[in-house]
């Protein structure tokens, strides 16, 4: 069947369109292949002229001199190598400590945690040394590659020259270039070789550290598993009694000898001890000097009543982390001082005596228990210690529960005592039935939890009081912003400090219950928790960082707005509306910058932000037009400033008021009845709004006046003009004006027109002028008439006419109800 001409044209057009489409795809699809072919087919670098070769051989001398100067500027690696040797020695000591570890020792878990913390510190030290080495080795490697490229280039030129090498100048240039390139490469190689050797040493140390960390993690996991298994005799069995008898025959095995400090501890950490002692002495002296003054202040009375405890806790809380991992006995000393000081401080805030005694007993038991573990007391004696104290705890706190219930104490207090009793009961039962490792772990975790909560509360209270005293001592005389916002600034600082303290208390609680070995591991594990979204791994740490950035942007914006409004812009003659527009623009700019930085901190790139913007565009197209319209209108109001804060406006519905807030989405107008009207910014831009105070706050005030017929017009005019000209609130330019407007129904109608300087005073000035007009009219005998009307009756009922004509109309008789 023949194909029609129309169909032939259609088929031809389809082929042309398809061919054009594939031709447009050809460059994109084959770009990489074409680039590869072009690269492979690119001609070699053209051979320079002989003159250029001779010239470049001369520049090599200068480049060689520059290289010598730069290599001489590189710091000596001897100190770096010595620090690596010390790190290597510490790593070998870690191996010795792990080998000498007694797996059955109750303190072995704490020793492993201490070694892991030391290993972490050594790893960080090695990482810093590696970064320092990288700063030196990277430029040397770059110089080596550059000179190798020069050597290759000159070798290619030498191979291509041929007969031109017979020229003496060319041959001399090549000889000089070859010698200088070889000298440069030798110089770089001499610098690079020791660096690479040190790099190899760093790699070996890191490999041993990784091996030790894996070994420690395996040992700690094994100990955590062993603690949940039994294997020890019940506490009332003959085997346990035999263990106690054996210890009585060999008292030397009860406690193992232990040095108070390790070798080199005082040499390395003496400055920390001196710092703590100095802070303690200074703080104690200051507290005792101001003791009577502090005692008279209810919120700070504890500073005057417990000066030694406060002076001890501040340097312990502030500087103990500088020790890193102190020796066990030194750690025990610090823990004891902190525990006693915390107990003394806590008892000042507790009114009930039994709670005070419980706190002191808790601290005593905690110190004794940690001492048993550190001194390596045999497990049999530790079990006996746990039995005595947990049994006493169950009996005492059980009795307190019954007493608190009988005394109708708050429910939370009763449940807290029940929880404490339950914990002591579990520890007691596990210790009796032979799960001594589990009982020891529970006892240790419970004691540490109680002390961490007490110390955390003490830290929060001390930090709050310290911030309050610090804020009061700041010189705020010239800083109006600080003076007016001191309470809010203090509240923000307290919130931040409390959040930091709670975070670290939680991290140490995780360590106390052996979920993690050291607080750094707990913090890292918590912050690394997250999920993957679209190829990005968003962790809790990134979210916290983004949140802190946004919070910092808001705080910075709030602070900068206050400083600009109260300390900077207020010094000029700028009105309130202009100042508010400037600070609002600064606020929006800082929030936008903070938002972008927060997104960048979370791993979002510009491309992802563009995608988010596209999604927002789709959302705007579906239902956010009004929000965006109001937002853009708010920006227009800020830039063009047709309405400012403080302006008196009249809206389209006739309501009048003063603008009190110009927001991003809506503007707040307060009527003169103090009603708040929230007007969307889009309505202010799209509808007619009367601004009485936009360009000029002056206005014309019109006062209508009516006087009785027969009054002297000139006298009325003179009185009104005199009242206007004698008032200091009326402007002289434009001049006041009195107009005789009309013959009214009851009066001669005049109008007094005056101009005043401030629109906001219009009602006050109008009232004052009217009062003065009334007073002057009374003096001049001018009458202000009442409204008068003449009533003409066209027809009247006869009865009504008789009554109107009579002098006294009789009253109508009262209606008499009919009797049934």
Automatic annotation (TrEMBL):
Residues 77-104 form a coiled coil. Belongs to the MscS (TC 1.A.23) family. The lineage of its organism: Bacteria, Pseudomonadati, Thermodesulfobacteriota, Desulfobacteria, Desulfobacterales. One of its GO terms (molecular function) is mechanosensitive monoatomic ion channel activity. It is a multi-pass membrane protein. It holds the Pfam family MS_channel_2nd. This is Mechanosensitive ion channel protein MscS. The keyword Hydrolase does not apply. InterPro entries: LSM_dom_sf, MS_channel_1st, MS_channel_C, MscS-like_channel, MscS_beta-dom_sf, MscS_channel_2nd, MscS_channel_C_sf, MscS_channel_TM-2. It is found in: Cell membrane. The chain crosses the membrane at residues 270-287, 307-323, 329-346, 358-375, 381-399, 419-439, 445-463, 489-518, 538-564, 585-604, 610-639. Residues 702-784 form the Mechanosensitive ion channel MscS C-terminal domain. Its main location: membrane. Residues 626-693 form the Mechanosensitive ion channel MscS domain. Keywords: Cell membrane, Coiled coil, Membrane, Signal, Transmembrane, Transmembrane helix.
């Amino acid at each position: 069947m023949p194909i029609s001409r129309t169909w032939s044209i259609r088929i031809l057009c389809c082929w042309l369109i398809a061919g054009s489409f594939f031709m447009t795809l050809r460059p994109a699809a084959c770009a990489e292949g074409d680039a590869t072919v072009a690269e492979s087919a690119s001609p070699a670098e053209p051979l320079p002229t002989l003159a250029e070769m001779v010239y470049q051989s001369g520049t090599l001398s200068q480049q060689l001199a520059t290289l010598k100067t730069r290599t001489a500027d590189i710091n000596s690696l001897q100190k770096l190598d010595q620090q690596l040797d010390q790190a290597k020695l510490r790593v070998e000591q870690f191996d010795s400590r792990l080998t000498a570890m007694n797996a059955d020792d109750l303190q072995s878990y704490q020793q492993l945690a201490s070694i892991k913390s030391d290993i972490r510190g050594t790893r960080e030290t090695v990482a810093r040394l590696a970064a320092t080495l990288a700063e030196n080795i990277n430029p040397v490697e770059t110089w080596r590659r550059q000179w190798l490229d020069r050597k290759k280039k000159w070798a290619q030129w030498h191979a291509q020259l041929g007969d031109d090498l017979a020229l003496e100048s060319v041959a001399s240039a090549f000889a000089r270039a070859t010698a200088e390139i070889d000298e440069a490469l030798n110089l770089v190689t001499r610098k690079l070789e020791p660096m690479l050797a040190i790099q190899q040493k760093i790699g070996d140390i890191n490999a041993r550290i990784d091996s030790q960390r894996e070994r420690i993690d395996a040992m700690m996991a094994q100990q955590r598993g062993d603690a949940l298994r039994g294997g020890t005799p019940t506490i009332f069995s003959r085997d346990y009694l035999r263990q106690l008898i054996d210890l009585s025959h060999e008292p030397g095995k009860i406690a193992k000898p232990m040095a108070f400090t390790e070798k080199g501890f005082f040499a390395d950490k003496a400055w920390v001890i001196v710092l703590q002692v100095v802070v303690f002495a200074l703080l104690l002296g200051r507290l005792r000097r101001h003791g009577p003054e502090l005692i008279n202040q209810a919120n700070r009375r504890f500073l005057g009543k417990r000066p030694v405890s406060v002076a001890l806790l501040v340097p312990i809380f502030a500087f103990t982390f500088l020790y890193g991992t102190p020796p066990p006995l030194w750690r025990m000393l610090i823990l004891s001082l902190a525990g006693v000081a915390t107990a003394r401080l806590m008892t000042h805030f507790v009114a009930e005596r039994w709670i005070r005694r419980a706190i002191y007993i808790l601290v005593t038991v905690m110190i004794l228990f940690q001492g048993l573990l550190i001194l390596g007391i045999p497990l049999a004696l530790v079990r006996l210690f746990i039995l005595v104290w947990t049994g006493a705890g169950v009996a005492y706190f059980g009795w307190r529960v019954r007493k608190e219930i009988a005394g109708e104490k708050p429910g939370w207090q009763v449940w807290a005592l029940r929880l404490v009793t339950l914990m002591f009961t579990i520890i007691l039962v596990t210790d009796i039935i032979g799960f001594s490792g589990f009982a020891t772990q529970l006892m240790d975790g419970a004691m540490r939890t109680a002390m961490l909560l007490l110390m955390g509360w003490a830290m929060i209270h001390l930090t709050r009081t310290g911030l309050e005293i610090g804020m009061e001592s700041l010189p705020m005389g010239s800083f109006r912003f600080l003076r007016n916002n001191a309470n809010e600034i203090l509240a923000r600082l307290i919130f931040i400090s409390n959040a930091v303290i709670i975070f670290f208390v939680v991290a140490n609680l995780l360590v106390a219950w052996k979920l993690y070995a050291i607080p750094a591991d707990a913090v890292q594990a918590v912050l690394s928790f997250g999920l993957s979204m679209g190829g990005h791994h968003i962790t809790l740490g990134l979210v916290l960082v983004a949140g802190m950035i946004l919070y910092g942007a808001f705080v910075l914006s709030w602070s900068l707005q206050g400083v600009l409004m109260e300390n900077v812009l207020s010094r000029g003659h700028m009105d309130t509306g202009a100042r508010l527009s400037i600070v609002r623009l600064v606020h929006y700019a800082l929030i936008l910058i903070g938002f972008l930085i927060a997104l960048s901190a979370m791993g979002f790139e510009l491309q992802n932000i563009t995608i988010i913007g596209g999604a927002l565009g789709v959302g705007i197209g579906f239902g956010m037009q009004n929000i965006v319209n109001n937002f853009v209108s708010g920006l227009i109001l800020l830039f063009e400033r047709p309405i400012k804060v403080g302006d008196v406006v009249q809206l389209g519905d006739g309501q009048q008021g003063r603008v009190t807030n110009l927001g991003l989405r809506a503007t707040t107008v307060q009527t003169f009845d103090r009603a708040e009207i929230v007007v969307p910014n889009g309505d202010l831009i799209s509808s007619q709004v009367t601004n009485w105070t936009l360009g000029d706050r002056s206005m014309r005030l019109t006062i209508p006046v009516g006087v009785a017929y027969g009054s002297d017009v000139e006298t009325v005019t003179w009185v009104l003009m005199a009242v206007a000209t004698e008032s200091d609130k009326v402007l002289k330019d434009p001049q006041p004006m009195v107009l005789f407007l009309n013959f009214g129904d009851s009066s001669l109608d005049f109008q007094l027109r005056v101009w005043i300087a401030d629109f906001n005073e219009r009602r006050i000035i109008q009232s004052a002028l009217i009062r003065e007009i009334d007073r002057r009219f009374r003096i001049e005998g001018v009458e202000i008439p009442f409204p008068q009307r003449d009533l003409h009756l066209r027809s009247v009922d006869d009865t009504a006419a008789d009554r109107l004509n009579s002098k006294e109309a009789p009253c109508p008789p009262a209606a008499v109800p009919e009797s049934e």
